[in-house]
Amino acid sequence: MIKVIIDAGHGGSDPGAVYEGRQEKDDTLKLALAVGQILEDNGVDVVYTRTDDVYQKPIEKAQIANASGADYFVSIHRNSSRTPNQYSGVETLVYDESGIKAEMAEEINKRLEKVGFHNLGVTERPGLIVLRRTKMPAVLVEAGFINTEEDNRLFDERFDETAQAIADGILAAVGGASKEKLYRIQVGAFRNLGYARDLLYQLERDGFEAFIFWDGEFYKVQAGAYRQLENAVRMEAALRKKGYSTYIVS
């Protein structure tokens, strides 16, 4: 079973960014718990750095993550700018833009963009302790600017969709873990992430829903997720008609 540790940024005596009485630590905890619940509902083993309003140093968060034995680390934050309403959008930070963490960051951003947020992209931040000192692939999601009215409106009015988007991005990157047995069509397996992405983009251009799954050795490109084998067989036939080499996995 995949294990993900979810970190609600800041907490306790550290409120994070503050805007007109709104505190980052409150938004991050609410969103972290919602994302974690969705992951649990999809068969993921979820651990939290905090589930209430307590202070933790960044190094403590990294130590909790490392001690948990989690496969992935996801930290939830809100962004802020010097001037209110100066910037808008979501951004996901990584230690460096390589491997499964970069793929997860892109998947999260892509889905948050569909919610309505501007996609500010993936940014390398090797100096952040929670990204540098964690032993597993780690991402830090900046879920909109806390001092931008439009981002707060989206955060509040489309909160459930925001949580779902982050969870879906995580699941897409790690292969869509599920409690149910699902059939998927594998289209390729690569040691090089770039080759996997090229195939992913080609599949999407051809109208197929696809994702990249890292199994610890290969980046596997898979399409679809079906409860019924016959539906997977039909999709496999459509892929083969387009010239793809495939086989069904579960």
Query: Which strand order do you get reading across the main beta sheet?
Result: 4-1-5-8-6-7
Poorly predicted ranges? none
**Helix percentage:** 40-55%
- Write the CATH fold name of the largest domain: Aminopeptidase
The domain count comes to 2
The radius of gyration computed from the alpha-carbon positions, rounded to a whole number of angstroms, is 18 Å
Q: What's the total helix number?
A: 8
Shape designation: globular
What's the order of the H and E elements?
EEEHEHEEHEHEHHEHEEHE
- Can you identify the CATH superfamily of the largest domain? Zn-dependent exopeptidases
Q: Quick one: biggest sheet?
A: 6 strands, mixed
Binned strand content: 25-35%
Give the strand tally. 12
User: From the coordinates shown, what is the CATH architecture of the largest domain?
Assistant: 3-Layer(aba) Sandwich
Measured distance between first and last alpha carbons:
14 Å
Average pLDDT works out at: 91
Alpha-beta classification: alpha/beta
**Under the CATH scheme, which class of the largest domain?**
Alpha Beta
How would you describe the overall organization of this protein?
The chain has 8 helices and 12 strands. With 250 residues, it is an alpha/beta fold. It has 2 domains: 172 residues, 3-Layer(aba) Sandwich (Aminopeptidase); 67 residues, Sporulation related repeat (Alpha-Beta Plaits, 2-Layer Sandwich), CATH 3.30.70. Strands 4-1-5-8-6-7 form a 6-stranded mixed sheet, sandwiched between helices. A 4-stranded antiparallel sheet has the order 10-11-9-12. A two-stranded antiparallel ribbon has the order 2-3. Strand 2 and strand 3 form a beta hairpin. The longest helix has 18 residues. The radius of gyration is 18 Å and the shape is globular.
